[in-house]
Each structure stands twice: as C-alpha cells, then as structure tokens.
Amino acid sequence: MNGKIVVLPGDGIGPEVTAQAVRVLQAVAAKYGHSFAFIERLIGGSAIDREGTPLSADTLSVCQEADAVLLGAVGGPQWDDPEAQIRPEQGLLGLRKGLGVFANLRPVTVHPALVSFSPLKEEKLSGVDILVVRELTGGLYFGLPRGREVRNGQMRAVDTLEYQEDEIRRVVDLAFRLAQSRRKRVASVDKANVLESSRLWRQVANMVGKGYPDVSLEHILVDTAAMKLTSNPAGFDVLVTENMFGDILTDEASVLAGSMGMLPSASLGEKGPGLYEPIHGSAPDIAGKGMANPVGAILSAALLLRYSLHLEGPARRVESAVNRAIDDGNRTADIAGTLSTQQMGDAIIKRL
Ligand code: IPM
Ligand code: MG
Fold it and tell me: Ligand nearest 243 Cα, by number?
C-alpha cells in the first residue's frame, strides 16, 4: 500500500526519537513491499522560532491531507515564559483540535525485564495491561470562557470544563469497542460527587454501556482511580476519562512501565488521519545528546501502522521486535543502559 505520513519532530529530543521511528517505518515498508512518503514540517517551539507560530495553517492542512501524523514532542525552557502569548503547546492543542482526534489511546504495559525500574513492588506489576482512553479535544483544555484579568485590584483567572453529550458519547463508545477485543471491562473515571460535567459524563457512559452487554462498566472517582493505579494497577482494563484527568492519570500510569520513554500513544478521530506521539515530553535536559529512549516513538509508529494504515501484522512485528530487543538486554540510559538512541533503533530494526 501507499501511505502519506507527516513527520513533526518538534522540540528537544523529539527529532532524535522520531528519526528512529521513521527508520523503523522505512524498514517495514522495505520488508513488506509498501511505499511510505514522509513529509517533514515544524511544530512547537521550533516552529515559533522559524515560522512565528507554533502550528502554521500550511502545516495543519498538510497534516489534514495525510494518512497519519507522527509527532515527537513540543516545548522547552526557552519558550516557557508564563507571560508569553505564544507557546509551543498551542501547536499541539491546535493540531489535535484541527485533526478532530477526540480519543487519545495510551496503552500501559510493563515489560517483565523492566519491573525493577518501577518504584512499585514487583508483585503489583504482574499482569498490568491498561488502556487509557483520554478525551482529547474537549473538557478543561478547551472550554470557554477562559482567561485572565484584574478585577477590584485582584488578579483573576478562569478555565471552563464543559462537555456536550455527543463529545462524551463518541469517546466512551470507542472505549467500549476497544474493550470488546480486550478483557471486556471499562472503568469510566469522573468526579461525579462534585462536578456537574462529571454527572453528565456518568449518565452518558451508562447510556453507551447499554449497547455493550458483553462489556462491564464501572464508575470510579478520579481520586480513587489515582490511588488504585498504584495500589492495584492490574485491576484495570480500559479506563476512559476527561481530557485533564487523563493527562494526569497517564503520567502516573507511566511510572508502572519503569520509564516514560517506553510509552506510545495514538489519537484518533471519526475519520481522517490519526496522530501518533510518545507520551514523554521534549526532555530538554538530554536533548541533542543522542541518549533518549526511542521506544515510545517506535511503539507509536506501530500504532500508526495498526490504526491508520490497517497493517496489523507489521504493527505486531514492530512491537515484538521492541520486546525482543529489551529481552536481549538492549537499554538506553533511562533504563540503566548505555546504548545511544540510534543504537537502540538499530537493535530494534535488526529484530524486525
Ligand atoms: C500530553 C502533554 C500535553 C497535554 C502538553 C504538552 C500540552 O502533557 O500530551 O500529555 O497536556 O496534553
Ligand atoms: Mg501530559
């Protein structure tokens, strides 16, 4: 098949890790006789520096016309002025909204050889296989009104958490569909004891759940979910939740895997290209040193093969190559190894 993939390396370690993910996709194309075209564009801080905006209209439209978008990371201390009107993160949020990718899938599994890198006890980690489905284009990140002002000599700020029924329905529905090919359990995470938006979320989740009699639905408060992610992480199958709750819970869940560098994500909409990015950030402290872990980016490329190009076989081959590379002791610095980003890429490609 032919695939058109936009690559947005972004900032910090983004270019280093996406380069390895692209190499993996090229190796897959060569091996299986596919032809992938890669189009590179700027996003985030590097786009602010060179194009004056974190996501140009041209970049967004190139992304909208592609089959898939592979992104590295955005942000860094040089763009971190809290008073700044233009921030790298606006590029990422604009891209998510512009592509309509309302569901962010963040699978969390623990490679058996890496359990010692998690601060949790080994027995807690066995059997951990979680899929967090984070709502990505609504909720607290996008609600209006938002802003800052000075009123009566006091600085004030407001953010709004708003959901409309169909925004909840489509993401919860996807969570149920995904649960059908897993362990058939959905935990819907909310704060329905306090927030009106969560009471709507719960009501809609119940309605959606009626259409999936084969899948169980449990409601869990976000504070309890945060606690259970460390006290009994193996108890979860699919978690579905509001944008900001999902942001926080997935950073917490990444600790289970031993390193943030290990975890991928896929952001999907109704139609159109998916967006694939590792869940880690731009890691400015190690940027440019060639030591970042490319596994999160490479596993994101596997998700791209699966969800956007519908190449399930090759997606599994990439995941298996990553697992075997780790089984065989290949490690970057975040998991106490000495391999460079490129050498880790080599080790994985060799096993494809
Ligand atoms: C993430 C990141 C982003 C988010 C930032 C960079 C805007 O933390 O993808 O989890 O909050 O969504
Ligand atoms: Mg985050």
Answer: 1
Judge if pTM exceeds 0.85.
Answer: yes
Of 247, 248, 252, 254, best ligand 1 pocket probe by most atoms within 8 Å of the beta carbon: 247
User: Would you say residue 262 lies in a domain?
Assistant: no
Q: Is the CB of 247 under 6 A from ligand 1?
A: yes
pLDDT band at 98 (very low <50, low <70, confident <90, very high): very high
82 confidence band (pLDDT: 50, 70, 90): confident
Do 168 and 250 belong together in one domain?
Answer: yes
Residue 2 within any structural domain of the chain? yes
- Both ends of the chain: CA-CA distance in Å? 19
The tens digit of pLDDT for each residue in 34-61 reads: 999 999 999 999 999 999 999 999 999 9
Q: How many domains does the chain have?
A: 2
Contacts of 117 (CB under 8 A, 6+ apart): 258, 259, 335, 336
What's the Cα-to-Cα distance from 71 to each of 41, 117, 186, 207, 267, rounded to whole Å? 10, 26, 28, 35, 11
Of the residues 233, 257, 281, the one at which a domain ends = 257
CA distances from 220 to 76, 152, 187, 257 (A): 35, 40, 7, 23
Q: What is the mean pLDDT of the chain?
A: 97
The reply to whether ligand 1 has any atom less than 6 angstroms from the CB of 252 is: no
In a domain, 263, yes or no: no
Mean pLDDT of all residues in 222-230: 98
Looking at the structure, do residues 53 and 165 belong to the same domain, yes or no? no
The CATH code of the domain that includes 222 is 3.40.718.10
**92: Cβ below 6 Å to ligand 1?**
yes
